[in-house]
Amino acid sequence: MTHGGLTTAEAEASRRIHGANVLPEPARLTFGQAFLETFRDPMIRILLVMAALMIAMYFAGHAEIYEPVGTIVTVIIVATVTARTNVASDTEYRALRARSAKDTAKVCRDGGLIVLPVDEIVVGDLVILQGGDKIPADGVLISGDLRVSNAALNGETEECHKRADAVAVFPEKTTGDTFVDGTTLFRGSVVFDGEGILQVCRVGTATMMGQMASEMQAREPASPLQVKLAKLADQISAFGYISGIVIVALYMMFFTLRAGGIEAYVLLGWGQVLVDVIEAVSLAILIIVCAVPEGLPLMISIVLMQNTSRMLSRGVLVRRAVG
Q1: Nearest 5 degrees, angle CA 48-CA 50-CA 55?
Q2: What residue segments make up the domains of the chain, in order of their start?
Q3: Quick one: pLDDT at residue 2?
Q4: Gyration radius of the chain's alpha carbons
Q5: In 3D, which of 105, 176, 189 has the Cα closest to residue 147?
Q6: What is the Cα–Cα distance from 264 to 255, expressed in whole angstroms?
Q7: How far is CA 243 from CA 106, 188, 250, in A?
Q8: Mean pLDDT of 50-74
Q9: b vs e for 60-81, b when ≥16 Cβ sit within 10 Å of the residue's Cβ?
Q10: What is the CATH number of domain 8-23+103-204?
């Protein structure tokens, strides 16, 4: 590398060694993946459990087949509508990304100053920074004086003053103090004022922003609606367990009192006791099934789809309709 930056050959060699300055993109969402992901919804799982219980009761002669079939059809419709909405949103998002202008940066190459897409910057490049520029990679300030904002990375709105150090070294480990030290710069930060030269030390997934993007993809946080639905599903499950136990206990108590006591009830024979237990459990299941709002997941999917379409018509793209 010379004072004019890397040569083209040196830049290609650096790209082979350290990789490109590309942030990780989530894999394209397929219909099958979106369809199966719907079944992670706790409400959908409750409906499937209810359908399985109703099928078992049908074969035992205590339920009609149309009840579990209707529930299963509802679940399939919900999964299909949700999957189609999410796939369409993902496809439109990628198309918009492809049409949008790429971020660029002023880079010293082959003894001159050129404008390159941020994706083509490599380790060792010298990047000219001015007020209003977004820093394209992690590195150190080797010339100039800057005031930068790291709000995109750590949420702090206070500007940080950076002073050049020709022998500065990028730290091996990044801590909270690294954001406010005198020379270290991070991708995604914005230059508020000043001019300087950034020597690129890390690109792509090795940058702080790249690591954050990878972590966010690995553990996508639940949306507020998902949290509410999960809480509702837990409440329905708790209500179902408690109600089922109470109903079975009361029913068996009724059978016992009607027979004249426990001893008299046992004398009726274990066959009669088994029939009564099945009847009590069947009634408990029926009451629990009635308490489950089978139409709620379908209603949520339809509302999300309508809202997504309405927002798209007004120029707002929803990448994923999470519900």
Answers
A1: 95
A2: 8-23+103-204
A3: 46
A4: 31
A5: 189
A6: 10
A7: 68, 54, 10
A8: 80
A9: eebbeeebbeebbebbeebbeb
A10: 2.70.150.10
